[in-house]
Design a protein that fits this description.
The protein has 416 residues and is an alpha/beta fold. It has three domains: 183 residues, HUPs (Rossmann fold); 67 residues, no CATH class; 69 residues, Structural Genomics Hypothetical 15.5 Kd Protein In mrcA-pckA Intergenic Region, Chain A (Roll), CATH 3.10.290. The chain contains 18 helices and 13 strands. The strands form three sheets. The chain has a six-stranded mixed sheet, sandwiched between helices. It has a five-stranded mixed sheet with strand order 7-13-12-9-10, covered by helices on one side. α11 links the parallel β5 and β6. α12 crosses α16. The longest helix is centred in the middle third of the chain and has 17 residues. The relative contact order is 0.09. Keywords: Aminoacyl-tRNA synthetase, ATP-binding, Cytoplasm, Ligase, Nucleotide-binding, Protein biosynthesis, RNA-binding. Its EC number is 6.1.1.1.
Length: 416
């Protein structure tokens, strides 16, 4: 757990914290990168406890892609933890800001999405977020609600509340300007509009990744400009992917999609290193810090780390599927590790017997190309009816075969 900073300690000296506020602060700090300003958040928590009024906690996501992976759920997990404390969470879909395109971390202008693309992506976002958040206690908003009515006059008035000099302090803008890379004027509107979301929603806390810090601070600035009590901001780290090196990304192929089937999800979690497992426990598990520390202690005393990893894999798989699916995925993994064939595997019908093994793997969807199929054969990663195939020139006659690639890909191929 992150230690209390000096400003929080000062708050404690002036007004001793109740057990409830201490617990809420502990939950807030778990796994976070920064909480700014921490003393203000302690004050908000204390006021909320005294008044019984829940705090308004905001997370905004632009629907730039139709699906999310578990790396995206790090901030959603934090939202759920705060939601379970009784606070009001607001899941904001940036249908208006998506039209601008977030310049965060970009070295060139981000192509804006079309309204049609945004609508299609937004339809899946809340459904997927509901696998983490409690839908009955989540306020869903779209920032077009207040951004469109703002109009040209309101946009000019909003733009007057921030200077170009301060905008250019932002790292990505500064780097692009120094390098002579074009910056479009509309990109300056993005942090302003994201900040205005906080004004419209009267948020007490806004969450985001570490790459969103400038935009989150803009919300604090604009709330003060509009006479509101400024929100606090909470940044969460970017989750390392399966390789334990790079951040989780589809382009790096080190991700777990939250809509992946249960068996694949379970097996992928088990594939991570013992070291990375604790990082994932902190950022992805809903188990208490005390429970996680007890697991670490048990392993230090000789328990098998795999048992803790299995528990994590089952928790994550159950969250996005069900407890029964997680149990079945565990059994499936056990069967595969013993060389067994899963109960349910895809069935594929092919013609052209006798058919070369590389062509069969490609046609059955077990390899993306014949060259990749040959590489897999050379590596000893292909089995037919349990036998390892080493001959790239093998041709299979008509019949039905169980074909396996690696540990997790199977197909029952009927070849005619």
């Amino acid at each position: 757990m992150t230690a209390l900073s000096n400003d929080a300690e000062s708050s404690q000296k002036s007004a001793p914290l109740t057990d409830g506020v201490k617990e809420a602060l502990s939950v807030t700090l778990r796994g976070c990168e920064e909480l700014i300003p921490q003393a203000d958040w302690v004050k908000k928590l204390s006021q909320s406890e005294t008044s019984g009024q829940p705090l308004r906690i905001k997370l905004g996501l632009d629907p730039t892609a139709p699906d999310i992976h578990i790396g995206h759920t790090v901030v959603l997990n934090k939202m759920r933890q705060l939601q379970d404390l009784g606070h009001q969470v607001i899941f904001l879909i940036g249908d208006f800001t998506s039209l601008i395109g977030d310049p965060s971390g970009r070295n060139n202008t981000r192509p804006p999405l079309t309204p049609e693309q945004i609508k299609a992506n937004a339809e899946t976002y809340y459904k997927q977020a509901s696998l983490v958040l409690d839908p009955a206690k989540t306020e869903i908003r779209y920032n077009s609600e207040w951004s469109l009515p703002l109009g040209s006059m309101g946009m000019i008035q909003l733009a007057a509340k921030y200077t170009v000099a301060r905008m250019m302090e932002r790292n990505d803008f500064h780097q692009r300007f120094t390098a002579g890379t074009p910056i479009s004027v509309h990109e300056f509107l993005y942090p302003l509009m994201q900040g205005y979301d906080s004004v419209a929603l009267k948020s007490d806390l806004e969450l985001g990744g570490t790459d969103q810090k400038f935009n989150l601070l803009m919300g604090r600035h604009l709330q003060a400009e509009y006479g509101q009590e400024p929100q606090c901001i909470l940044t969460m780290p970017l989750l390392e992917g399966l390789d334990g090196v790079d951040k989780m990304s589809k382009s790096k192929n080190n991700y777990i999609g939250i809509t992946e089937e249960a068996n694949s999800m379970f097996a992928k979690v088990l594939s991570i290193s013992d070291t990375l497992m604790w990082r994932w426990y902190t950022l992805l598990s809903f188990k208490s810090i005390a429970h996680i520390e007890s697991l670490k202690q048990a392993i230090a005393e000789g328990a098998n780390p795999k048992d803790a990893k299995v528990a994590l894999a089952k928790e994550i798989t159950a969250r996005f599927h069900s407890a029964a699916a997680a149990d079945a995925a565990e059994q499936d993994f056990i069967n595969r590790s013993k060389g067994g064939v899963p109960d349910e595997i895809p069935e594929v019908s092919l013609s052209g017997a006798p058919l070369g093994i590389a062509a069969l793997l490609k046609s059955a969807g077990l390899a993306p190309s014949s060259s990749e199929a040959n590489r897999l054969i050379e590596g000893g990663g292909v089995r037919v009816d349990g036998a390892v195939i080493s001959d790239k020139g093998l041709k299979l006659p008509a019949g039905t075969f169980v074909v396996q690639v690696g540990k997790r890909k199977f197909a029952r191929v009927a070849l005619a």
